[in-house]
Amino acid sequence: MEKEIAVKIHTKAVHAGDRKKAGAHIPVTTPIYAATSFFYESMEQLDRVFGQQEKGYSYARYENPTTAALEELMTVLEGGHGSLACASGMAALQMAVVTALADRRKSVIAANAMYGATVSLLLNVLEPTGVETRFVDVCDLDALRAAVAEAKPGCILIESISNPLLRVGALDKIAEIARAAGAALVVDNTFASPLLVRPLELGAHFSVHSLTKYLSGHGDVLGGVVVTDAAHFDSLRNLSRAIGPVLGPFESYLTMRGIKTFPLRMERQCANACRVASWLATHPRVERVYFPATADHPDAATIRRLFPPNLYGAMVSFELKDAGREEIFRFMDALEVVVRATSLGDVHTMMLYPVMSSHREVSPKHRERMGIRDNLVRLSVGIEAPEDIIEDLDQALAR
Ligand SMILES: Cc1ncc(COP(=O)(O)O)c(C=O)c1O
Prior knowledge:
Layout (H helix, E strand, L loop, with lengths): L8 H7 L27 H8 L14 H14 L3 E5 L2 H13 L5 E5 L4 H11 L5 E5 L4 H11 L3 E5 L11 H10 L3 E5 L4 H4 L9 E5 L13 E5 L1 H14 L5 H11 L2 H20 L4 E5 L9 H7 L8 E6 L4 H9 L5 E2 L9 E3 L11 H7 L5 E5 L5 H12 L2
Parallel strand pairs: 2-3, 2-4, 4-5, 5-6, 10-11
Antiparallel strand pairs: 1-7, 6-7, 8-9, 9-12, 11-12
Helix pairs in contact: 3-10, 4-9, 6-7
The structure holds pyridoxal-5'-phosphate.
């Protein structure tokens, strides 16, 4: 999209990043540029590109045209200044946090409910390098303010919808707290996606995604992205040039292909999730349903304020009555349509057992503090006919 037209996310998803002139013709989708090196008519020009005085490509660790197209698309979808596509969501999270802390105090305040590998990144990877982390209930703004005043963090790290208990912090207010304290706010926006919320528009400094999930959406890409503002973009890219955590051109192409239908898929998944969550809430074997649309959700007011109407995400977590590992395994083994696998956001409905997979690396004590019990399962609702998802859950719950 050369012209600046105010278009909706469905249109951006289909057009942004693509349609770049390649000689005399304009391909409708960005080609896969597999080349690792690029050269020019003259050494003078290559020298300028290497020196970053002229825009261009020299070496794939620095930039690749296919990946650059995906980065442009993500920048448009998230309303940022620039993006860095990475080889995984975890690589993207690490890049965001390390960039955020480059000129700030090496201290992080993180949400007390997060993806297990993120907790592990903070405690097992960053802490030994001198980055201290404190976990706080970021949905309690007074608790957050008190922790910020005490810890004076360089970075606040949260998820827009938390994994797996689906809490939603007041992003805009958390951004105000971060900015007043001189901290950078990093938001993992994987669960909500840019269809529900765009953290940079609410004051965050970094929005991070596991591209592996809703954005690529078909269970065939591992990737991540950091979208950031003008103030942090150069240092993010310079760190990437040094380390090279970048996404390859084949994955970038597949991700762009996936993103073209992402808003459509996400709308359908959100609608399906509402139906599945309502049905689960009436099932006698279900003790408790966690879903952002429920009237008694602890963050209902924030959700109403920040999310578009009728879009609550497509994740549903629930606890089974009197169940432990054995009962959960029996229930999950009986599923026929729902795929028993780690990950989320794909076109197919998937279920995982957090204790066994997403939060396996978190100690049992820490898991208990997070509220993750042994009878909890997490469902990522896909695009199938909702009646079929419900029928499958019903027959598996009867075992
Ligand atoms: C919320 C969240 N953030 C980040 C990640 C990490 O993404 P990846 O597996 O692409 O590294 C995941 C993976 O499940 C996730 O659920």
